[in-house]
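Sorry, any thoughts here?
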Amino acid sequence: MTIWFGDVAGIDLNAMAGASLIETLGIEIVEIRDDALVARMPVDHRTTQPAGVLHGGASVALAETLASWAGYLAVDRSILHVVGQEINANHIRPVSSGWVTATATPAAIGRRAHVWEIRIVDEAGKLVCISRCTLAVIEQRSGYAAPEGRRKS
């Protein structure tokens, strides 16, 4: 049984991420499982700190991106939108190159709030960061769209 709302097979999250922080950091959705969402992010000049290792803020950006996409897929997007409300992260080990992979799984999916757990691992499968992100579910058509379809402020 899937945790997603409706048919998500035709939703291209990577295309929707264009012209955003997600694209800038090189974050890519790689798999939509029935019970989880998986993405990867390069460890390179865009995502490292001056000491040459993965920046904690980049890990948090990856975690919140994945939680937000997961929340987006788990609600009726025609009438609901999700927004980040709180996030925490424990940085476990440094990574200096390659890719990190994040997997978001639900801790709780409620009508008004979601809590997602995001585990980020290196290419050897070792835990790099663990994060928990709370999303508020609001009664508003989702504003997520590809660059050409976004609202202008």
Notes: The chain has a mean pLDDT of 96.
